[in-house]
Amino acid sequence: MNDRIDFKELHWLLTVTQNIDVGVVVLDQEYRVQVWNTFMENRSGILSYEAANRSFFSLFPEINERWLKNKIDSVITLGTPAFTIWEQRPYLIHFKSYQPITGQEDFMYQNTTMYPLRSTTGAVTHVCLVIYDVTDVATNRLQLQAANRELQKLSSTDRLTSLYNRGHWEEALRLEHARHVRYGSSAALVMFDIDHFKRVNDTFGHQCGDRVIQRVADVVREHIRDADIAGRYGGEEFAVLLPDTDKQGGAMFAERLRAAVEALDVMQEGEAIHCTISLGVADMTSPMDDYKMLIERADQALYESKKNGRNRVSVDASD
């Protein structure tokens, strides 16, 4: 009677193993396949009798053999399970994703658990790999992360120019000033605006004015370093924060930027619109109560450029 119950339970167990929607693979200590369920047959295209007693690594040569053997050997030695999750390793086996409608991934994201299997003597003789298809979870997580990154970008970016908005670059300036106070680091701020911009709007219209602002922003992007923070101050006025730069270096950058904008052509109905910019440069070498004083000094230098004829660079004279 007990034998019949045991046989029934074994039959049920095999039925569950074959029909459960996870991959089940049992390996011996030589990494040879002993159990290969229907999930594995369907995803790999390898039938159970074809996989039987073959090396797992010969079936999937793309697997990092050294890494997986270390995992399996630790399960056998310690007698405790081991895990891999998709955030650390997207998959154990490169299976195609078969999401019928929402599928957007080329492969199946997987979590894998490796269980020790003991013999009647208590020794670990086999390891069971249970492979879970977590493509939906991974895809949703990745989409949410991408959406959050996009929201973060939108919250810090000026919509017209795709440069940083005032809130972002001003916060970067505040942090740079704090770094200067603590470590004595240097930074320069360049502020500039487009000369006679109202005339462009009045003559060619606001859409053309927006295009001029966008093209000037493009020139700024072409001239800044990866560490620099370029943003829009408001209207046709811009700011560029140059970390680890003094006012002399800032003036050199500003002059290159001025010349590049002067050479810029913005086409409007076949007509080339030329524009120039006036720039002011200040740095953190002079004592400041807070970062806003650097904005004031750069803005004052910008005013000097406009007062002295525009299309020029002026440097803050504070000591």
UniProtKB/TrEMBL annotation:
Enzyme Commission no: 2.7.7.65
Needed cofactors: Mg(2+)
Keywords: Nucleotidyltransferase, Transferase
Reaction equation(s) it catalyzes: 2 GTP = 3',3'-c-di-GMP + 2 diphosphate
Entry GO terms, CC: plasma membrane
Pfam families, per the entry: GGDEF
Listed GO biological process terms: cell adhesion involved in single-species biofilm formation; negative regulation of bacterial-type flagellum-dependent cell motility
PANTHER family tied to this protein: DIGUANYLATE CYCLASE DGCM-RELATED, REGULATORY COMPONENTS OF SENSORY TRANSDUCTION SYSTEM
Record-given protein name: diguanylate cyclase
Organism: Pseudomonas graminis
Species classification: Bacteria, Pseudomonadati, Pseudomonadota, Gammaproteobacteria, Pseudomonadales
